[in-house]
Amino acid sequence: MKSYSHAGKTSPFSKVLILLSVLALFVVLMMQTATISRYQALLELQHKTEADLNRYIITVQQKLDRFKDLPKLLSTHPDLLSILPHPDTEENKLRLNLFLEEVNDIIGASDTYLMNREGLTVAASNWSMARSFIGGNFSFRPYFTDAVAGEAGSYFALGTTSQQRGYFFSYPVYSEGEVAGVIVVKIDLNDVEDHWNDPLQDILVTDNDDVIFISTRPEWKFRTLTPLSNKDQLRVRQSLRYGDNPLIPLDITHRETFIEGVELVTMKSSDPTKEDEPRGQQQYLLMTLAIEDAGLNVSMLSSMKVVDQKVLSAMVLVSFIYIALMLLIWVLRVRYRLKMQQRDFQLREHKALEESEARIRAIIDHTHAGLITLDEAGTVRYMNPTAEKLFGVTAKELKGQYLSPLFSDAARTLCWRYIMDDTTDSTELTIEADALDRHRRAFPVELTLGRMSVAGEKLFMLTIHDITERKQYEQKLRDATEALECRVQERTKDLVETNARLMQEMTQHRNTQNELIQTAKLAVLGQLSAGINHELNQPLTAIRNYADNGLAFLERGKLDTVQNNLKEISGLTGRMAKIIHPLKEFSRKSMNCIEPVSLKQIRDGVMSVMYGRFEKEQVQVSWPTNVDQVWVMADRLRLEQVFVNLLTNALQAVEGLNHKIIQVDVESSAKETLIRVRDNGPGVTDPDRVFEPFYTTKTSGQGIGLGLPISQRIIESFFGELSVRNHAQGGAEFLIRLPSANAMPKSALADMEIEKD
After folding, report:
1. By the 8 A CB rule, do 83 and 120 touch?
2. What domains are there in the chain, each with its CATH number?
């Protein structure tokens, strides 16, 4: 069984090692989960970014394609040559301006205008506005130089007049095979960035110098994706393409290549309008694609928040699964350990039950009464040897059978009625009946049938006493009584003697308890004899010395010294008398007189008897300070005997302890006084059996188990109660409840006086 009890135990070192292993595995698992989930999330984000970027490029490309061929179409209109290189008349100029204005409104362009070969604007759709292009010279623009060279031109720039961003399409206007002028259509791309509303993605449109001229972030416009050299910055500024903007690079602090064409960048957040983004570092996935035949590059910055969220979600999910798995393993392990502990407990309980049954069986086997154990159905389960002798049968022969062959019909009926009653009343059935032995011979017995429960099983205990001798005596007594009735005149003397003998037996029966008390007192005196001898030996030795010295001083004539020696001898004899007097009071028989008794008298008497043993055993006994104010109704000598018994038991309980303490506490009220006697010993093994006669846990020579039952009956005779319990802080605690001196009813006192008489 011992091997089972240790099967599920784990050493503290092993527990720490297991915990560290679980934590290490958890950390490794989280790192792997973060790495794998981040890579997968980046791939998903890259695919989404690529799809969105292609969609955006298609949108921009469609818009550019829509206006790309319009200048070529307009260049064929004959009215353009009417004012090239200079307007013939104001009427032609007005007609052409109105025509360009109408065309511009129809095609939805920003501006449409006509320049001569020198780059001077001679007609424009915005002719009537304050910002009219008429009179402006844009020969420095690349789209003009391309058209003058006979090619279609396209260019993105910040308007020098309107200061508005625009994309310019140009085409040469021919006159007799020569370039006479250039027609230009300007479109606005602002609506392309305005329609992009994804908060986790930002669009950047850059030129070949990586200058941003379209962006969903206003603060990023006219900044560069990569730093420009001083030479490139000077070139771009001289072209007036972006006005006076400083062309500062974006605050990119870190770049990392994810795959070809895709970068992971870290950028400082500097936009105060983005309230949903914290200040500091922001991470993006950057992808750039070019728009064919447009000289533009489109870049998309996708926020890494989605990646971080997916990584966090994956880690939370994996950690939850891991924790759930660990909890499942822990629960299974705990269940296994509980199962093993339950099996160990059952084995221990079974062994304890077997030991208890063996102990009970030994007690039953050696008792002088016949004992038969019945199960719930009333069949015989066990018979002790005494019962086997009474009935002349063995337990093996009757095991599993009913009681019918053992008793007469009347006894069987009463027993079966008691057994079949389903009540839980603990009242026992006691009857006199005729029992039958093996040869069916009847003999009188006294039966006691009671219920009991063992390990939750309902059983019955049948106790049989052979009363043949008592019945014979009763029969003889009845015969004698009948003879006396017939010969009353002749046998008066015998009848008186018989009555006197019976009265003497009754008196002896009433006095049995007092004799037992006196015997217990004498037993205590016997135990105290060594202490008394030690206490008296010293004054006797001193008396002998003083007497011898007195004779010597008397011979020398020193009468004063002789007188002093005699005084010392007188004092020593008084001391011996004080030692002997409490013992004499303690040993004499009580008069059974219940009267008000001071607890101070009880304390003084008990301590006079016991102080020698307490001093020898070095026991600390404490009494409350107010015992002189507490009075109870009792017989002083018998109450002293109770306290002597309790203190003697407490003294034996603290034997072998380094610090021995016996404490007496008192709680008094107008009706009742509660006295508690507590020791710091190991406590009471079985409080329910302490007051059973002859039950004792003491070693041989320390008692026979009658002190506490006698003490309980003494207290009950005072209309009180004596009980015992184990104190919560250790040790046994006896509780004495007695009526206070002013709480005893006068009728009860009168009854006690009558009983005493």
Report:
1. no
2. 69-188 (3.30.450.20), 191-308 (3.30.450.20), 367-473 (3.30.450.20), 593-756 (3.30.565.10)
